[in-house]
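Notebook entry, structure prediction.
Reason for the run: the old model in the group folder had no record of what sequence produced it. Starting over properly, with the input documented here first.
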Amino acid sequence: MDGKVDQDCPLCLEAMDSADVDHPVPCPTKCGFNFCMNCISALIRSSKDAPLEASDGNVAVKVKQNCPLCRADLSQIVDKVLLVRRQTIAARMKAIPDSELTASELQVKHNFCKKLSGVGNASDSKSATTSPGSSKLPKRDKEIVIDEKLFGGLELFMSDSEQKYVTVMMTSGDTDQVARAAQILASISEMSLKGMIPPRPSPTAHTTTHYPSRGRYSRAEMTASRALAMTHSAEQRKEEERKAAIRRHRAQHPLPIRMPRCVTFHSDKKHGKYGYGLIFLDDEWDGSISDAFRRMNVQNAKIEHSKKLQGRDGEKEDAIERMLSLESSIKNATIHSTPRHRVVVGKVRAQAGQLGIQKGDVVTHFNGEALTGTAEDLEATLENIAPGETFSICVNAEPAIAETLRLRSLC
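New structure, fully documented this time:
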């Protein structure tokens, strides 16, 4: 989505969005200075940081929300300006499919489109979503704890806000939100291949120091670690204990064997019916959470469900059984009492294999919408796609996976 105008921000020298120009910062002195949303966000973030103490005891000057030109107080203005600009961009993106938006644009769109559409319009809310609860994220009373294992190695290419946003979506327990998070990760992966890396915050004075080791701590390293721990305040020690509890909880709640993934295909008819490299099979899910830890072996168009439980990182069966018993007191905890139909990838080759699709993946969303048909219906849909068009397929954003990720976040 291109909303850039022929005007650069005077601070970062990047091209400004049309929303930046249409809704300038109303400085109280009317100096006329205006800057982009990214710089406004940076100013707000910096103003919330505590002053840093230098090694000589001096305290750095705290950043205030003042106009960069005339130094007028903008603390009562910038939040409202930022909100109006984001709402303007969200309104502009409402008619654009999710598959054509970047990760940051998706975040803006789904955060603000519901506010713009109005809460009382029931017909609009039904048409905009495919299942209950998919139009907004669940409220979190506790601070969001980032789970880097959810990002598939892309955490270095994500800003802190993107990591928190994707973590909330992945652990919401809602399959549509999980699919949307997978789409955001796919967009970030594409940008990472182009060398686009977001700026990372510099470490603060209270950042914990990690000393390298060769499997064991040396005497000097242990002495330094104890000395550092003694200088920590009670609040810092409490925070470290909380992080240790989170690590223990996640160790007891491993990732599922299949993780959500979203891929984009480019239509090309020259390869015939299976030109995308996919053959689909119909299957039934028994409604259990343990299905998230069972492999599906596909041979000769037949699906065999493994009885062995296994985590994504090689966790053994007894560890997964303990996790299931902790949550439900029974091994095969169920989400649905009756079996449900699903479509499974039965064969992979060509383009699909290159994009990371694997045999046994469960197809859950097509072009951002929940898949409700059969394998034959999906193949017929692919046949009707015109050459040159693109479409997206999301796999493994299914109830068992969503519930497993939600339980992993309850720490």
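Summary: The CA atoms of residues 118 and 321 lie 45 Å apart.
The old model has been moved to the deprecated folder.
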